[in-house]
Design a protein that fits this description.
Layout lengths: L1 H19 L5 H13 L3 E9 L2 E8 L1 E4 L4 E3 L6 E2 L4 H14 L24 H5 L25 H10 L14 H15 L3 H13 L5 E2 L14 E3 L5 E3 L5 H4 L5 E3 L1 H12 L6 H8 L10 E5 L2 E10 L2 E8 L4 E10 L3 H12 L16 H7 L1 E4 L6 E7 L2 E5 L7 E2 L1 E4 L2 E4 L7 E6 L4 E6 L2 E7 L2
Antiparallel strand pairs: 1-2, 1-13, 3-4, 5-9, 6-9, 7-8, 10-11, 11-12, 12-13, 14-15, 14-22, 15-16, 16-17, 18-19, 19-20, 20-21, 21-22
Helix pairs in contact: 3-6, 3-7
């Protein structure tokens, strides 16, 4: 009887091990990324890591493009990771809690009493985006540029102090970059070190992250950092003006690589960075938000992690604890939605049906395209979209834009723009009534063609 039980246990263990011992279809993953590169639908770097072992890695596109140079991306290139920074910030705050230097119930009044509602807002509420602290920091300068001008800590804090709270603390959820800016200040105050020094001491050196640090200025190709681009009509890449990292700080200023990100999240779940109790707090979701962490339902499984992005760069990091599986993707040119890329990668990993997109447009005759050409506005207002034709391609130039964006036909009267989001932008024309409808995540707007 004991022998049967032992054999049964061994068989069960074998089945479980087999179920988790997933081997990705590397050829299909290569085909997918080859197609993305061939059609100029993405530039970036991917890694799939299981229990610390790299199963697949791939980089496509370029880290630097000039008139004379096209420097291919490699898996060693570093990327700005945007709001994945919040996971690092939350982890450092929770380390301070674990060390007894901070309490989750401490109010902001203990550190920054000048912030509105400071005596009502707790550290826990800031971590979970329930503080009501409004997003500030992207103020327009005299040249009309809201991103590239540096912002000192004092200037940024002054904007928060001046702003009106979005809601009373803990009454609802409201994603707040400014809340994580404040958490960055608290880290500096309690450690007596700069955010960067704290990051290196408390996380990077602790778990061996060699390519993770805080940005302080413009992207530096001499440090193997990847310049951000968007696609121009005709298929050329153009460099994107950079949001200055001082604006992002503890909410989004970290630079890293997919390999480092995969190491970070595995270490987090292996209790090498924060305590089990603190990790549970990070994982606990309320109104779709944890404490520096969110969940993703992908391929019928629940992953933990975060996404990030600004300008036209982005990143996606997620982890499946029961399989110790990490997927990390960083991009310096969002074109095809990042969510669709990651979903495709997971489907291929689990050998689920996945059709590699062809990215082939529907042909629309120049005669029909000419009916859509013109200037469109809403109720005669100042915000005007200009639609032009070049050969067999329509181009849209939004209000204030210096360049036009090519439209990809999905039907004779429907076109889309891949902008790196899950849905992109859809433009529908009604030539008979001189109407153009722009649909995007969050709603739609109807424009009328001017005579």
């Amino acid at each position: 009887m004991k022998v049967k039980i032992l054999l049964g246990a061994i068989m069960m263990l074998t089945l479980l091990t087999t179920a988790y011992a997933q081997t990705p279809d590397k050829a299909k993953l290569d085909q997918f990324f080859d197609r993305l590169a061939e059609k100029n639908k993405a530039m970036g770097s991917l890694v799939i890591v299981k229990d610390g072992k790299v199963l697949y890695s791939r980089a496509i596109g370029y880290s630097q493009i000039t008139d004379t140079v096209k420097k291919p991306l490699t898996v060693a290139n570093r990327f700005r990771i945007g709001s994945i920074t919040k996971m690092f910030t939350a982890a450092m705050i929770l380390q301070l809690v674990d060390e007894g230097k901070l309490k989750l119930t401490d109010t902001l009044g203990k550190f920054l009493p000048e912030v509105p509602n400071a005596n009502k807002i707790t550290i826990a509420q800031i971590l979970s985006h329930r503080s009501g602290i409004p997003n500030v920091g992207r103020q327009q300068n005299a040249q009309g540029n809201v991103n590239t001008t540096p912002l000192t800590r004092e200037e940024h804090l002054a904007l928060i102090v001046k702003a009106r709270p979005d809601f009373e603390p803990d009454t609802k959820s409201g994603y707040s970059n400014s809340g994580y800016f404040i958490l960055g200040l608290i880290i500096e105050k309690l450690t007596g070190k700069s955010y960067e020094a704290a990051l290196q001491e408390k996380i990077a050196r602790k778990i061996g992250l060699r390519d993770t640090y805080t940005a302080t200025g413009n992207i530096d190709v001499n440090r193997n950092e990847s310049i951000t681009y968007f696609i121009l009509p005709g298929g050329d890449w153009k460099q994107v003006p950079e949001t200055h990292p001082s604006i992002l700080f503890g909410a989004g200023a970290i630079i890293s690589t997919p390999n480092d990100l995969a190491t970070f999240i595995k270490s987090l779940f292996d209790d090498k960075i924060v305590s089990k109790e603190s990790l549970e707090l990070m994982k606990t979701m309320r109104d779709g938000e944890g404490s520096g962490m969110v969940t993703f339902e992908v391929g019928g499984k629940t992953f933990y992690g975060h996404t990030g992005g600004a300008d036209n760069y982005g990143a996606w990091l997620m982890y499946l604890p029961e399989e110790k599986l990490a997927v990390a993707y960083t991009t310096n040119a969002k074109v095809y939605p990042v969510k669709d890329i990651v979903n495709g990668v997971v489907d291929i990993y689990y050998n689920k049906p996945f059709q590699i997109p062809t990215f082939e447009s529907i042909a629309v005759s120049p005669e029909l395209l000419d009916k859509y050409v013109g200037v469109y506005s809403m109720n005669g207002g100042p915000n005007k979209f200009t639609i032009t034709r070049e050969g067999t391609t329509l181009y849209a130039r939004p209000p204030g834009a210096q360049t036009a964006t090519p439209l990809e036909a999905t039907a004779q009267d429907k076109f889309k723009i891949d902008n790196g989001t899950a849905t992109g932008i859809v433009i529908e024309f009604d030539a008979a009534n001189n109407k153009m409808t722009i649909k995007r995540e969050g709603g739609e707007r109807v424009f009328t063609k001017e005579n």
